[in-house]
Amino acid sequence: MRREPPSAAEQRVLHAKRVTGTCSARALVVVDQTRDGDVLTWGHQSAAQMQSCKVRGVKGRVGPTGKIGERGERGPAGKRGPTGDNGGEGPPGPPGRDGDKGDKGGRGPRGTAGICKCGSLVPKSAFSVGITSSYPTEKTPIKFNKVLFNEGGHYNPQTGKFICAYPGVYYFSYDITLANKHLAISLVQNGQYRIKTFDANTGNHDVASGSTVMFLNPEDEVWMEIFYSDQNGLFTDPSWADSLFSGFLLYADTNYFDTLAADYA
Fold first, then answer.
1. Which end of the chain has fewer CB atoms within 10 angstroms, the N or the C?
2. Structural domain containing residue 214
3. Rounded CA gap, 138 and 211, in Å?
4. What keywords would UniProt list here (predicted)?
5. Does 8 fall in a domain?
6. Residue range 55-66, pLDDT digits in tens
7. Residue 155 in 3-state DSSP?
8. Is residue 205 part of a domain?
């Protein structure tokens, strides 16, 4: 015959017997019990039945951790995962080696014609100078200080020297009035006498002249000079007599002119 559910006192007795492991003829038997809820059955049991009654004891402590077992065999490869996002741009790599030389390109289109400026490329150098004092010092450049013409500014009246600016062929001449003394005068290039003129004093005014053509390189120097002592009869008078020294470029050196044209272009 079914009984009513155990009272609170009976439940305490049942809990005590579970703990001690004893059973009685009229005790309630625990079928299952959990922490969240107990499932109980109850009824009258005989003494023999109660002898076989077993009550679950209190759960013991967790035992120590066992030793790590041997490594198992490698498992099969897993399925390929999804493709990840692209990474950031890396730093530039080192320059590569030079490639092979390419084929020669085709001929380009014809360019437009240039403007001729040939006149501005022609080198110009010319001078003509006089002197304002008579009887210059011997064996030193005569300073012709009266400038009549000086294209390019290559003659220096302060030194009496013409300094070559363009390599080429030059023409030089002089017309010297003399009086009261003999005249021994020469045309000098870089310290070397190129031509000499001697004119003796006859008691009258006279003119000594000379001219020559020679090749000059840039920075070459040309001047007039009295080459003999006490033979400096050069004379001048602003009212009626002059002594002149002149020179000019006949034509420039061809190679120099070609180089000048290329640089100008």
1. N
2. 126-264
3. 21
4. Collagen, Extracellular matrix, Secreted, Signal
5. no
6. 567 888 888 888
7. strand
8. yes
Residue 108 located in a structural domain: no
State the Cα–Cα distance between residues 265 and 263, nearest whole angstrom: 5
Beta strand segments in 93-234, E: 126-130, 146-151, 155-156, 161-163, 168-189, 192-199, 206-216, 221-226, 232-234
- Does the pTM surpass 0.85? The reply is no
Pairing of strands 29-33, 38-41: antiparallel
Q: Is residue 193 part of a domain?
A: yes
Could you tell me the two tokens for 108? 């380009």
Query: What would the pLDDT profile of 166-187 be if each residue is shown by its tens digit?
Result: 999 999 999 999 999 999 999 9
| Residue whose C-alpha is closest to residue 174's, from 144, 220, 208 | 208
Interatomic CA distance for residues 197 and 32, integer angstroms:
154
Tokens 């005249």 -> residue:
183
pLDDT along the chain (265 residues), means of 10: 57 51 42 42 46 63 83 84 85 88 88 70 91 94 97 97 96 94 96 93 87 97 95 90 95 82 67
C-alpha distances out from residue 162 to 89, 140, 209, 216, Å: 71, 14, 18, 11
Cα distances (Å, whole numbers) of residue 263 to 93, 101, 124, 155, 258: 43, 31, 17, 26, 9
Report the DSSP beta bridge partners of residue 175: 209, 244
DSSP three-state, residue 21: coil
Distance of alpha carbon 164 from alpha carbon 124, whole angstroms = 11
| CATH code where residue 130 lies | 2.60.120.40
Name beta bridge partners: 178. Answer: 206, 234
